Amino acid sequence: MTNDFESVLHMLPPDVAQDIANKTVDRGLLEEGFLSPMSTVLINHLVPNNAEWFALCDRLNRLAQKIVNNAIIDGKRDDPKPISVRLMLKSNQSLQGAVLLSQRGMTAEAETLARTCLEITFWLGYLAKKPEEAAALFMAEEHKSSSERAKMLAKLMEPEAAAHFVKIAAEADAAYAKGPNKIRIKELAERANLADQYVYYRTLCAVSAHPSISSLDRFIKVNEDGLLSFNVGPDEDGIPFALMNTVNAHL
Fold first, then answer.
1. Which of 56, 104, 172, 195 could anchor a disulfide with 147, C-beta 3.0 to 4.6 Å?
2. Between 175 and 26, where is the model more confident?
3. How far apart are CA 215 and CA 209, in angstroms?
4. Number of domains in the chain
């Protein structure tokens, strides 16, 4: 549909074609949001206008994929190197997701994935400095989380079904008892020698990932009369900031 639409536009005078395209895309976004087929038309406008940032992300992505593809994985599932490679794979896909979202001007969602990349970078930094210690803590986090989830689910189940989750919680508690305590993100950044990056993590939490006034401000705009209206559609001005944070987090 979008290919046919764009083919027709090319047959019209540029100013007429642009006016029709803007109105059609705007209507699609109002009716369906970014699930509108017309949202793909945004890519042809937003990507060229931010070509250098998207090119940088493309180069970084290719390099990151090459590193992972050349990694030699040995050892057990819970050993430092297999954990590190899987973290890199997750970070690469978060980078790719942030780029795909930024191509459509979905900057809040892109920055949320950038925050994921940054948290992974903290873990990778810690694993690089103290592999065994970091891997043990990483697994302790898993056991603790598994236990907490299982206990919550058990409370929601009938006794027969709850027994399954009670068993999972007990096994996780036993494993967790052998490992270190959980760690806060700020301390994780410090152990990775990336304490200065923690402020960017907190910023991305506030302006993108968490429901807050800071993250909601991008959805309103003020007209010349000082009246508020909702901002539905791409955040074109925020694309460089979103991609900058994505690149910074992935490095």
1. 172
2. 175
3. 7
4. 2
